[in-house]
Each structure stands twice: as C-alpha cells, then as structure tokens.
Amino acid sequence: MAVLIAKWVIFVITSLLAIVSSLLMITRRNTIHSALFMILAFVASAILYLLLGCQFMAMIQIIVYAGAVMMLILFVIMMIDLSKEEKLKMKVTRTKIAGVIVSVLFMLALILVMGLNSVKGKLGALSSIGDAKTIGTLLFTKYLLPFEVASILLLAAMVGAVMLSKKKAFGGEDQ
Amino acid sequence: MIPVQAYFVVSAILFIIGVIGAITRRNAIVVFMSIEMMLNAVNLTLIATSSYLHSIDGVMFVFFVMTVAAAEAAVGLAIFLMMYRKKDTIKLDEFNLLKG
C-alpha cells in the first residue's frame, strides 16, 4: 500500500513537472530558456519511464535526448544571433486560433477515448521490459534488419549534416 | 498499480502542448523543440502500453523512434544554419516559397 501511494505521489509530481515545463517551453520568448525547460521535460519523462519499469529507455532518454540532442540545439542557438526573433511579438491569426481550438478538441477526444477505455491485448510472457539484456538480445535477433537500417540512416544523416553546413557547395561555388 | 490510462492522459496533454507550440510559434528552433516534444509524448504512450501488456515490442519501437529523432535533429539543425546564412534570420514567416 505504501509503495502504491509513493508511486502515485511520484507520478503526479513528475507529470505535473513535465506538463508545466513543456508549457513554459512553448511560451518563453528567450530560446535558451525554452531549451532548458525542454531538458526538464525530458528528464521528467525519463522518470516516468523508470516508474513504468523501463530503466534502459530512461537512461537512453537522458543520454540521447536530454544530453546529445539538446546539446546540439544549444550549440545552434549559440551560433545563431536570435535577438531579432526574441523581439518578435506573437502574431495572432485566424489560422492559429483555429489550429489551437482544433488541437484542444483533439486532446479532449484523446483523453475521452484513451482514458476511459481499458487496454486490450494478449499479455506477453516477459516479466521485466527494462533491462538491457532483453532489449539487446531482441535487437540482434528479431530486430536485426531495422537495427542495420537505423545505422545506415544515422550515417546518411551525418553525411547530410556535414554537407549542409559546409561553407561552400561541393562544386566549389557559394551555396 | 497506476492505471495505464493515467499515462495516456499525461502523454495526450504533452502531445497537444507540442502541437500548439508548433502551430503558434514563429521561431524555427522552438517549433523544432515542440516537434521533439510530440515525439516524446508518443514514446511515453508506447512504453506505457508495452509495460502494461508485458511485451517488449513497444520499447523497441521507442528505440527506433529515438534513432530517427537524433538523425532528424542533426539534419534539421544543419538546415537552420543554412537558413540563417541565406536570410540572416530563422523567423518562419520569411520562408514562404510554398505558400499558396
């Protein structure tokens, strides 16, 4: 019983943290503040993964998302002069109002459908889904082809990023 | 045990916050971060379902989503640098060649 109450307390606190920090992320004018709140939201969802018993994904979330991707974003923010963007006022257009209304309605529909129905499906045999051993074994047996495709994708992305950010195009003329 | 629906509600809220950010903001980097937030919300749903059905397939899916998100981040940020070099700003209203 005590464990359940503790889990609920952690769940409520972390979900509120995730929601509040992502709200702050989309409302701050300063881009660096946005990025820092984004890291907070990612760490909060890593704690939610831990609560679900998925330790490996929680670690990957912190290393890849909160670490590598956010570091890349912070580097780009540092390289670009964003003072003009930060002075921008919110421009309210009819399209934006319609979009926000539709997405809030969609959220209500999602909560109604997903929150009120129970999850149906065949229960698997695994007792723990979080350890690196299970994931690693599956990655090199059942999911070997997607794994290799992912490695090619990463290589292509790396080459693409280098090509895009070069000062001159490959032929030598200015891009 | 916390019901799986609670996780679904949280991830629906996070997803919609990401959608609203992507619709309303004009700073390209904030839009990009909102899209990452949407991916993150979907990952939470997949892991919750996977954990409640005692099946690891959802977790593997999250693994590949993260791979694609990392690749997307590298290419996307390089594109932002190009955009900045071309127009000296990354305000999204400046990039409207496809606007009808």
Structure description:
The complex is a heterodimer of chains A (175) and B (100). Chain A has 175 residues and is mostly helical. Chain A has a domain of 80 residues: Up-down Bundle (Four Helix Bundle (Hemerythrin (Met), subunit A)). The mean pLDDT of chain A is 87. Chain A is globular, with a radius of gyration of 21 Å. The longest helix of chain A has 26 residues. With 100 residues, chain B is mainly α. Chain B has a single domain, classed as Orthogonal Bundle (Helix Hairpins). Chain B is 77% helix and 0% strand. Chain B is elongated. The termini of chain B are far apart. The model of chain B has no long low-confidence stretch (mean pLDDT 90). At the A-B interface, helix 1, helix 2, helix 3, helix 4 and helix 5 of A face helix 1, helix 2 and helix 3 of B.
Feature tags:
heterodimer; A: 175 residues; mainly alpha; Four Helix Bundle (Hemerythrin (Met), subunit A); 7 helices; 74% helix; 0% strand; B: 100 residues; Helix Hairpins; 3 helices; 77% helix
How are the SSEs ordered, and which strands pair?
The complex is a heterodimer of chains A (175) and B (100).
Chain A: H1 2-27, H2 31-51, H3 55-79, H4 83-86, H5 94-116, H6 132-139, H7 144-165
Helix pairs in contact in A: 1-2, 2-3
Chain B: H1 4-24, H2 28-52, H3 57-87
